[in-house]
């Protein structure tokens, strides 16, 4: 049951409704919006408080048919924004990318990855400390020491960190070192764990179970919400089907379905959803296109030799390319597909075909020189930036593409011109990324040499 208070309702009237609910042995959950307060009533035998509509300050009482009361859009019309150490995930916020290794393997591996994903624009660092694996002989994670390494990576980069908790007994240690608690797919129905993280003060990322329906998934979220933790993020990570071409079947239709049923933020994990490195980027872009609030991407400095899920982990270069694509999807408008008008006077060519081809060759040679000069200038821009700042300025890029699409006339359409300049921007970005990676490695080598001392 949902009790909607009038916009003019006083705090005393709100407290009166809550007190009446609790006196009848039910629970009251308040959601305070900009205009009005909504009170969710949860418990058995709701009929005992059917008279709530007659209390002062109450505008209407809505009966909810869905079994998940607190997670439903009826309980909260405004979409939830979850805050984690300075980062907001939810409606109206930019796409939040959570990136890092599947498992924390060493300090060097984690710090190198953290610096890379920070530089490329990730907002949250992920890393597994405890790894529930199908085989008891697979790498199970470093445990508590990995949590301390994640906290160290946060101090070094400023990125909030997320890691999967598998045992309620470890929650206190997680709260000391971790900003977001992850409940993995295998534990979506671990109700003891759900209640325990529901009592935590940390946000909870809840992954969809391997074969869970959307309703079962939302009911799992209801366990966390009803235990008192309102900061729940849903993560679609693929479900088990008959298909064997991918590790799981990534159910992107779940994103718009959830939009219509819940106010909770929704993110997508295309790494686990596909299980194949080549499929991660396309499905990440598709996830952003269907309205996901964020993404979880596995990144590793050496994917072929990763101790966990190397087949689905992106290299640093692949992750950087994906982040470029995501920025384009979010911020760069597509050019008008209408053909450009031909110039008023088409230049006349008196030469024969070989003379025209010679002119093309000469122009190509000059273009090659100009392209190299532009790349050198882009590299100089990267040199003058801070080491951890990526060189992808989407506002300047958008302005460039708009000028290219609208500032000239000729046989090429605006879309074709955009494709040419887009390829040029990609090449320049590759040069910048290569330089940034070289600088990072050089600085790390200098730091190690300094730490070793003169006799090292």
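Q: What amino acid sequence fits the structure above?
A:
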């Amino acid at each position: 049951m949902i009790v909607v208070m009038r916009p003019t309702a006083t705090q005393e009237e709100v407290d009166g409704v809550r007190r009446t609910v609790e006196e009848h042995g039910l629970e009251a959950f308040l959601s305070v919006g900009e205009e009005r307060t909504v009170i969710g009533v949860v418990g058995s035998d709701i009929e005992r408080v059917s008279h709530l509509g007659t209390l002062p300050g109450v505008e209407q009482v809505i009966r909810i048919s869905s079994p998940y009361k607190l997670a439903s859009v009826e309980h909260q019309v405004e979409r939830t924004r979850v805050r984690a150490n300075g980062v907001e995930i939810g409606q109206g916020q930019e796409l939040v990318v959570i990136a890092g290794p599947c498992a924390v393997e060493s300090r060097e591996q984690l710090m190198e990855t953290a610096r890379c994903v920070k530089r490329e624009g990730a907002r949250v660092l992920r890393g597994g400390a405890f790894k529930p694996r199908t085989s008891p002989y697979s790498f199970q994670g470093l445990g508590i020491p990995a949590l301390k390494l994640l906290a160290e990576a946060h101090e070094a980069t400023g990125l909030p960190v997320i890691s999967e908790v598998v045992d309620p007994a470890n929650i206190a240690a997680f709260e000391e070192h971790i900003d977001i608690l992850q409940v993995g797919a295998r534990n979506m129905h671990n109700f003891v764990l759900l209640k325990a993280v529901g009592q935590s003060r940390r946000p909870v990322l809840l992954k969809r179970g391997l074969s869970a329906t959307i309703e079962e998934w939302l009911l799992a979220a209801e366990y966390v919400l009803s235990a008192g933790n309102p900061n729940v993020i849903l993560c679609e990570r693929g479900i088990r089907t008959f298909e064997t071409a991918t590790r799981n079947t990534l159910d992107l239709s779940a994103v718009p379905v959830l939009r219509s049923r819940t106010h909770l933020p929704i993110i997508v994990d295309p790494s686990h959803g596909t299980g194949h490195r080549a499929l991660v980027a396309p499905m990440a872009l598709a996830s952003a296109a269907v309205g996901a609030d964020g993404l979880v991407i596995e990144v590793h400095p050496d994917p072929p030799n990763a101790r966990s899920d190397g087949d689905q982990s992106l290299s640093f270069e692949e992750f950087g390319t994906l982040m470029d694509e995501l920025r384009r999807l979010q911020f760069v408008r597509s050019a008008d597909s209408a053909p450009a008008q031909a110039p008023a006077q088409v230049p006349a060519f008196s030469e024969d075909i070989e003379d025209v081809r010679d002119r093309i060759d000469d122009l190509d040679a000059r273009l090659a020189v100009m392209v190299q000069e532009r790349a050198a200038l882009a590299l100089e821009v990267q040199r003058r930036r801070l080491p951890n700042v990526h060189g992808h300025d989407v506002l300047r890029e958008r302005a460039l593409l708009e000028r290219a699409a609208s500032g000239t006339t000729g046989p090429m359409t605006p879309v074709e011109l955009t494709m040419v300049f887009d390829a040029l921007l990609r090449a320049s970005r590759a040069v910048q990324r290569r330089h940034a990676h070289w600088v990072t490695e050089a600085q790390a080598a200098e730091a190690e040499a300094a730490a070793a001392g003169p006799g090292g």
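Q: And what stands out in the fold?
A: Residues 414-452 form the longest helix (39 residues).
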